[in-house]
Amino acid sequence: MTDVDKTAGSVGSRPSEFSGREFVVVGLGESGVAATRTLLEYGAKVTVNDSRALDDLGERAVQVREMGAKLKLGGHRAEWFLDADAIVVSPGVPFLPALADAEQRRIPIWSEVELASRFVKSPIIAITGTNGKSTVTTLVGCMCAQGGFATFVGGNLGTPLVEVAGSEAAESTGRVVAEVSSFQLERVDAFRPHIAALLNVSEDHLDRYESYAHYTATKGRIFHNQKREDHSVILAGDERLFALARVGLGTLHQFGYGGEVRLEDDNVVDEVSGLCVPVSELSLHGEHNALNACAAALLGRLAGVTSDVVEDVLRSYSGLPHRMQLVSVVDDVSFYDDSKATNVGAAVAAAVSAQKDHAHLMLILGGVDKGGSYHPLAQRLRKGFDHAILLGSAAGRIAQALLTADISFDRVGSLGAAVYRAAELAPVGSAVLLAPACSSFDMFHNYVDRGQCFRTAVEQLARTKSQGRFSDETEGGGG
To answer: In what helix (H) or strand (E) does residue 466 lie, and over which residues does it extend?
Structure first.
């Protein structure tokens, strides 16, 4: 029996606690629908609340009503929450003044991951951080599944965590691997990961949080309920992360330069398991992904996965869509999609990675501003950088930062125009990188839609070039 088999991951499975109780689920997105379905399946009475009207919600409203939920739509009235035994708030829902009275009456207000944890007997491996959490979560999920454990992978990554309820992975011998965002950590109460990782913290979501310190502290909530038999994982050498991890009681582990799983002589080395994998043999590229590999290797070992399985996954896993994906090489110019780079830290990491393989780099930036500073990006781009193409509502703020660093840029009206302008300017052997440093919601449904539009524009560019036609008036894949 491994260490991780000796303890449950969270508060345990007590589905009887939901039968006959009144719940209000706020927000009818994917996680709201999943929470409603699960609560109803376990005998709860559910009212769904959303600011949108019935006609705007469409099929989802019909779906939850057919399940047996009541609907209260078109706003958030305080009296709608006061008869609830508990309230489940979806991660995309902002602070609601209407919930204040419910809080004063000590009505529990939970995030969807808090609700989900109450159905789990198995160890929860929870991963947060500003950047890299999706990659690390997927790597660890692959390791656990390939290691023979019944495994559920979800949370902020895509599949709502509450869908783990009733699965084999939720039983004591399974493994639950969860990507957890700061939004999901705002409303946790008893959520207790047996293994909790905070990979890094940089400025992000300052359009939601009152300060960087507030955002950072919210990330640190992942450690709050850990006990001495649990494990806390952080990047080595980061004093902010160390202070956050020490709030809980878990055994501290560190990865990265100087950590117990570290980068040493261009290898990923685990001094405990004996793992040693050359960075050049990883399927993921870039220094940031080498650090992600260190984190995943450490988490995999703590989860009870053998070193041979960890090594096999590190060598074979090729990455998630829209994360430093090579889309195409057109006239010896490489086009990379890192649409998931929705903050400055992620954009800097992507640019550094691309510059290691290309003498010249052009960056496509812009979207919805999230309240952070673009100056760290501008300062990093002063070295070995050619030009920026700006679009979206944040283009003006980004332009101001680039001007202070004497970096040249163009502004365009669509992503398709950005691709064609970059192709006009890019020298042979260079890279064009979509790493927006912003969210996507001004022009696209989400970062996936933005990445797909970029791919479409690059593919259209390649066809145009092959047919001997080229004009920046063609704006395929714009938005």
So the answer is: helix 447-466
**How would you class 424 by CB atoms within 10 Å of its CB: exposed for 0-12, middle for 13-18, buried for 19 or more?**
exposed
Query: What CA–CA distances, in Å, run from 157 to 358, 385, 419, 448?
Result: 30, 32, 28, 12
End-to-end CA distance of the chain: 53
102-131: pLDDT as tens digits: 999 999 999 999 999 999 999 999 999 999
pLDDT tens by residue, 154-190: 999 889 999 999 999 999 999 999 999 999 999 999 9
Q: Provide the edge-to-edge strand list for the sheet that holds 251-255.
A: 151-155, 175-179, 124-128, 195-198, 231-235, 251-255, 261-264, 267-270, 276-278
Judge if pTM exceeds 0.85: no
Element (H, E) at 446: none
3-state helix, strand, coil in the chain (%, to 5): 40, 20, 40
CA count, 13 A, side-chain hemisphere, 10: 31
SS3 91: coil
The closest alpha carbon to 328, from 236, 246, 422, 406, belongs to 422
In the 3-class helix/strand/coil scheme, how is 230-248 assigned residue by residue? CEEEEECCCHHHHHHHCCC
The secondary structure of residue 170, as a DSSP letter, is G
Two tokens, residue 432: 């064009």
Looking at this protein, which amino acid is placed at residue 273? S
